[in-house]
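Q: Give me a backbone?
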Amino acid sequence: MRARSGGRARLDAELLPPHQQQVDALENQGLVELACREDRAELSALEGRPVRWAVRLTPYGHDTLAYGQSRPRAEPSPGEAALDRQMVELIPSQMAALRVFVVLADQLRVPPADGLAEQVRAASCDHGIKRWRLHLTQEQMGSVAYGLWLHRMTGSAAEANRFGREYGVVYSPGWPIGK
């Protein structure tokens, strides 16, 4: 790692153990690289103080940040978040079933509600609780229940049952979608 003007080296004299663990994890994922002894010596000369460690983003780390900043988000704007939307948290198997439902939109006689495909594409995952977050209208909630009902009819009922328990929205043939 060579220090360059405009480079992305991070300099700090105080590296706390929790931070070191985070840096190690990022390095293990190939997102950052630590400076070698020669690079730290050069950086120390430039800084006029001892530099005990330095880290820089790798090309993969840079791309990860760029992607993360431009990725569409499911969170509605403040004006849009008003009364017409509800935050829904889906477990991975529910999200997988919902993705199949929106992919099949052109083949279905009862397609997903307007805007549901966009919500699915823009959904964000909270990896801490392993839940996908979407902000849905009542019509979209009913459409999700329908998609999970289709999943129930061709596979597992667990996803539809869970959605019904958590959000009180269940689809049954003959019921209007969105109610």
Summary: The chain has a mean pLDDT of 83. The radius of gyration is 24 Å. The chain has seven helices and six strands. The beta strands are 9-11, 32-34, 54-57, 86-90, 124-126, 131-136.
